[in-house]
Amino acid sequence: RVLVGQVFCEPPRCSSLRAPAVSVQLVAACMEEFKAWLRGSGFWWDKDAIKLGCSVDEGSGSGAPRVGVRARRRLEIGEVVARIPTAACLTCGDCTHSASVLELQRSLGEREWLATLGFALMLERCEDDVVTAVAAAGGERAVPSSSPWAPYLAVLPAQEPNVVLLWSDEQRRHLAGTDVEQALRDERAAARAEWDEHVGPAVAKLKGAGAACAGGCTFDKYLASRSVVSSRAFTINPAVGVGLVPIADLFNHRTGGHHVHLTDLDDTPTQATQQSLRDSPLAMDGDARDGENQFMCIKVVQPVDEGDEVLNTYGELGNAKLLCSYGFAQSDNPADHITIGVPALRAAAAMCGVSGAQITARLAWCEISGVCDDESTFHLSVRAVPSDALLLVLWTLATTDVRFDALRQATVACDEGTSLSSVKAETLACFVSIAESQEGGLKEESGLRILSETLRRRRAMYAAVPDAWYDSEISGAWKSSISILLSSEKQIILTCEKYLKERMGSDEGTGQNRKRKVDDDNVSEPEASIDVFSLFD
């Protein structure tokens, strides 16, 4: 469900379609049944304007065709091409086992929508599995599903195949040094904790109550359902929350230059976005106030020529987020960035010769003063210009005691009632001004060397993408994603290194008066501080 040429659609969840090779005819058969369900459930789409669920290329690797939406004619800005009833969406409050799901939601909190909606989808699927098993045991060829969303479930993949959480150990090895590596560790730990502490006990409670579907619920099935939710869920409205939205999730994504967005009928700006829900999907532009609006619509925001694929956007997301949540990366992604953490700066400072005692003391001051703490991160974007906040931390780590004392003695006066964010902004601006007034300014060379060393160490961790892959079924999608991710991160780093060299006025790297090439295959190692291990005292 992704950008053209990147990742290919997995087979729908029909058991007959789980084989590695999936024909276009089989996918089309499930899609036609799904469309009939849409028509009977109050959905509408302009059949003269768009074609739903069509193959947008022939597929590769797994043999599964990649499906999406194409324009049957030229689409103009402002057109509404589909209408979606909110009551027909699969949500925590509207699913077969809503009582159990809502109980889990109360236990976890509404912000943990990924766990609760993943639980809801798993139960919905296991309910269908029980019905199918009973029918098979009785010799019946067909039996009505117990899930109202059965035709929709049939066109969903069993799992989102290319999200990083489900990669093999060998595949994940190639993420070393990338933003995705840390995000993956956090995500896997979160999923396991959700299951052990909340979802697993909820399943056990259902078993105790005699719910047949609970017998088929496992951690692996939870992970699979969670991956589908992660890649397909939308914020429906503040009253309903997050859910799976048929039709809307057929549109593939592009960061920048997308053609449509999901909105309410009044096209009112939403209040429920990623800023208000933790990592909540940002592909809806609407505000259905307390259920007042019963429909959402797909509205054209950029013209589309006849025959072209119609693309939505899931938000201005970098490649690390796209790969973790949606299973693909986008070439030339304008929202891409890399993340630099304080621990990486700490290690690089030591490698540049800053004493462990100084690093510890300076970072302690940063935390007390609200500049940063050990969990803080800084972004370097495609433009690769370091922020003032990052430059201030670098300056603080590397500058002399005399200059640092001038900063440490500063006080920031704010008017009573000033918001916390404003106080932080004013404090940062004051500190930046003081550092800028010192000899060498905020971009003092010794501080820039720490950033240069941070980037050098990161590049050295990157793994090479293999020319061949042992599993031909996944080679195309996986190699494309990892190649784009690594290429994009390296380009950001190299651009920033060029900026740092220009600022430092020489070709010297992070080593003391030693040159190095900005080249992946020929990087010299700087000398570490003899006091480096005092960092861990």
UniProtKB/TrEMBL annotation:
Transmembrane segments: none annotated. InterPro entries: SET_dom, SET_dom_sf, SETD3_SETD6_MTase. One of its GO terms (molecular function) is protein-lysine N-methyltransferase activity. Residues 48-315 form the SET domain. Residues 505-524 are annotated as: Disordered. This is SET domain-containing protein. It comes from Mantoniella antarctica.
